[in-house]
Write a structure and sequence with these properties.
alpha+beta; 220 residues
């Protein structure tokens, strides 16, 4: 059976709050003004905006940035869950649903430069499950923002936990941060790895080890 979650239900209030949405509306006047700011910055930094290839760059930049951060607008397709297939067997509190690698691209809120990588998300179902594609949507909901990797993992875990009330949730992220490669220390190939555990995963080291082993296999 498919369960469409009603936005008016109490659980959904917590769920939508966990998504930290900021519905955005930009007028044509705002877009023109922002394009002017971008043009001023690009010109000051050395770009020639009087060529056929660059004359529309400020407009493309603003529109591209707006699209790249549309995670703030939410994703209504996340609000659909199904009854679990588990019927109370001994493995119901052990069996993991693991999805990954899920490619993501985000913007670091410190320098507004991209960081990108792969996410692995797992949960141990209780009464409900979610479509596999929704795990990808969930990752990208929080990736397409100005954010930091640590918070992104926490938000994915907390939102999935509120949506499904599972026995446990695990999130593993690995990413390249261009703020350390294009500027600053100029690292050549660093990978930042973060984990987040909820429920049974926080309590059981064996479950964590199984999840991380599967994630490593997925990255081979």
């Amino acid at each position: 059976m498919i369960l469409d979650i009603d936005y008016e239900e109490e659980i959904t209030e917590d769920f939508t709050a966990s998504m930290d949405l900021h519905k955005r509306r930009l007028s044509d006047e705002q877009l023109r003004r922002f394009e002017g700011y971008a043009a001023e910055i690009f010109t000051a930094f050395g770009m020639d905006l009087q060529t056929p290839s660059t004359e529309d760059t400020p407009s493309r930049f603003i529109k591209g940035l707006y699209e790249a951060t549309n995670g703030y607008d939410g994703d209504p397709k996340l609000l659909k869950v199904f009854h679990t297939e588990c019927r109370g067997g001994p493995d119901c509190r052990l069996s993991q649903v693991i999805e990954g690698p899920i490619q993501f691209f985000a913007l670091c809120e410190h320098h507004s430069l991209p960081f990108y990588g792969r996410a692995y998300v797992a949960y141990i179902a209780h009464d409900q499950i979610i479509g596999i594609s929704k795990l990808t949507r969930l990752v990208r909901l929080f990736a397409k923002r100005f954010t930091v990797q640590e918070r992104m993992g926490q938000q994915i875990a907390d939102t999935l936990d509120l949506l499904l009330r599972p026995h446990g949730v695990a999130v593993y992220l690995e990413a390249h941060h261009l703020c350390t490669q294009m500027r600053g220390v100029r690292e050549t190939s660093p990978i930042t790895r973060t984990t987040c555990w909820r429920g049974r995963f926080a309590e059981d080291a064996n479950l964590r080890a199984e999840f991380l082993t599967m994630a490593q296999r997925g990255g081979e």
